[in-house]
Amino acid sequence: MELVIDTISKDYGQQRVLDNVSFKMGDGEIVALVGPNGSGKSTLIKTLATILDPTSGKITLDGADIRGIDPIELAKRVGYVPQSFSYTLYSTVFETVLMGRRRYITWSVSDEELSRVQLALDSLEMGDLAGKFMDELSGGERQKVFIARALAQDPQVFLFDEPTSALDIRYQIEVMETMRRITREQKSSMIVAVHDLNLAYRYADAVVVLNRGKMIGYGKPQDILTPDCIRSVYGVDSFAIENEFGKFIVPFRARP
Amino acid sequence: MPDITQTDAAPPSTVHSLYKAGSGRRITLIVFLLFLLIAAAIFSAGIGTVAISPEDSVLSVAHACAVSVQNFLHTYLPAVGAWYDSIPFTIPSPSNPQAELIVIGFRLPRIILAILTGISLAVAGAVMQGLLRNPLVDPFMLGLSSAAAFGAAVAIVIGPGILGGLVLIGSNSFIIILAFFFGWLSMLLVYGISRARGVNQATLILSGVVIGYIFSAGLIFLQYITNNDQLRDLVIWLMGGMWGASWSAVLLLIPLTLIPFILLERMSWDLNAIAAGDNVAKNLGINVNRLRLSGLMISTFAASCCLAFTGIIGFIGLMGPHICRMIIGNDHRYLIPCSGLMGAVILLISDTAARTVMSPVEIPVGVIMYVIGGLFFLFLIIRARGRGLY
């Protein structure tokens, strides 16, 4: 699998929200999108999910333009978790996750599909919530249900738009560990927009730094996420500390 | 909870057992509603100014069917007709000699009209609620009822003037055509407005409400300028009822109800997926805009067809799907047929009550329905409050 983002730009009316963004990724890779609010992370993810059309440039998956791939075929290859999601009254957890198998279901639901739902829930340790109604869950649990839905889809590429924003720190780490394991095991790859730079640092193979739609940096986290970079993009002073658990970024002061 | 870590023996996991239990409950409800509907139909055929026993009601229908088949075969397929006559089993005529005339001639078309209208409105409601992810939407919220009422008012008030003596006030076909035409026109307008603004559910609902008000304005104006006789006709139409029942109406409506039902049922999985949000549905390869528009068009079409014959019948579109959702959840494969059956049962029982409680005077079916609907809605709100919804 090779995903190539080739000079993608996106305009909303007069405003340019993505400006010539290019990078590429392969099997088993996790790419973190970082940048302040409004930097174009969500727009880029939605463009990759073919929810938005790019104004110019193209995205290819194994050499084929994703706009030209049949949406039903693409749905088997790309799984998307939105930043905000909805559910209706009386939807249960497992039915929501089952939607990830939509493209493999024509009318009745086979045991195979149900097993995949179970597997997806179990990998996020949510098996015992399967029969709950969506409105009975906490915000973080609901977010995990939508992650489980994408896992059930079993795609080649995961597109996560701030998947851990509603999760407490334990679940943030758990979800990222799970995604790290799954992408390695299944040779799938993942593009994830994150706010927490340390998550990007710990779990990503590469980081794309966006600021006002422009790609400021692209490369290994330790090369890119330097105090200088963080200062110029976020306007925040920070320092890095290193101990036996790894290297950490500590932001401590907003610059005037 | 079964231990799901031991995968060797593949024990029934939670998801499998939940799904099986859910399917069991859904099928049970469908079967139960079917029986209830048949029982209600037999009961309704028997009750009225002339009481007819359940056996006679069933025999009337069976006998009439057998005779019709016989006549058909003898006219068009004499060879098969001879074979048909040789079947050693005959269905006896009902013991009450009037039964067949009353049941087949008067009560059955009315029963079938109530069933078809209940199915159309409730199915339309279930689909609209799913498409717009809004549990309070029904066919009327999107301007349909006001527009159809306006159409009927035009036919009743202006029709005789325009067409000279051609259309009598009492003749219904002009009312039916205009009510249908305006009902569907309202949906085309809603579609047109939302299309210009991007088809999201908020725009659709808002344009529906606005168009409803515009047609209401027209309706009020027509009511204001009209004379007493026409006003009375109009008011009766607005109250809704199964007065328009006839075999020709029913035979026309059967395909106009069943075909939309099949088309909508085929959308079930996409309707399920859209519950998770437009963007998730798009990621699943669903053309959300096309689904939303075609779903709304088809369900409005079915609702308008029935509405044109019955006048304004409210609440079924809201109530039928809601009760079913509470019992069997959101899977539209089952929700759509269950809602249809639920709508049919409620409307048939309400209509039977409406024509019998003050017999020989008929009260409008809306009177019964709105009382049931109002009480149900209170219950719904109180229950939803308890669960922290709304």
Please provide a brief summary of the model:
The complex is a heterodimer of chains A (256) and B (390). With 256 residues, chain A is of the alpha/beta class. Chain A has helices at residues 41-48, 71-77, 93-98, 111-123, 139-153, 169-186, 197-203, 221-224, 227-234, and strands at 2-12, 15-26, 30-34, 56-61, 64-65, 78-81, 157-161, 189-193, 206-211, 214-219, 236-243, 246-254.
How would you describe this structure to a colleague?
The complex is a heterodimer of chains A (256) and B (390). Chain A is α/β, with parallel strands linked by helices. Chain A contains nine helices and twelve strands. Chain A has helices at residues 41-48, 71-77, 93-98, 111-123, 139-153, 169-186, 197-203, 221-224, 227-234; strands at residues 2-12, 15-26, 30-34, 56-61, 64-65, 78-81, 157-161, 189-193, 206-211, 214-219, 236-243, 246-254. In chain A, the strands form three sheets. Chain A has a six-stranded mixed β-sheet, sandwiched between helices. A four-stranded antiparallel β-sheet of chain A has the order 2-1-4-5, with helices on one face. A two-stranded antiparallel sheet of chain A has the order 11-12. The longest helix of chain A has 18 residues, at 169-186. The model of chain A has no long low-confidence stretch (mean pLDDT 89). Chain B has 390 residues and is an all-alpha fold. In chain B, helix 13 (316-328) crosses helix 14 (332-356). The model of chain B is unreliable at 1-10 (pLDDT under 50). Chains A and B meet through helix 2, strand 6, helix 3, helix 4 and helix 5 of A and helix 1, helix 10 and helix 11 of B.
